[in-house]
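Field notebook, page 101. I keep forgetting to write these up properly, so this time I am using the form the group agreed on. The chain and the ligand, iron/sulfur cluster, are recorded exactly as supplied. Prediction of the bound pose follows.
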Amino acid sequence: MRCDIVSETCPGVGCLKAFNRRTVYFRDYDQNAEMIAFFTCGGCSGRRVHRLVKSLLKHRVDVIHLSSCMQMDNYPECPHIEEIKRTITNANIKLVMGTHH
Ligand code: SF4
């Protein structure tokens, strides 16, 4: 999951390359791991998160990564990150804080 604001200028190459190459926050996944979704929060205040998490549960998602851009100093600080994290963990989905940085 990534920041909707950042997605206006970022095509997500860093996240996708890191997954494809199994580097940084994806280094522990074996080659059988699949990325089944790549989406934004829907804009402040993370308005799509609850609905998308619900939808992902139907597809038996194991892990959600929050993109590095949601947590880095050189991007706008996400004022809703704690709520977004809670929505994911309350659904009993493993949360990893980061993708490629
Ligand atoms: S809620 Fe956070 S991650 Fe989503 S658009 Fe706003 S600042 Fe970005």
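OBSERVATIONS:
- The helical segments are 13-21, 49-58, 81-90.
- The longest helix spans residues 49-58.
FOLLOW-UP: compare against the apo run.
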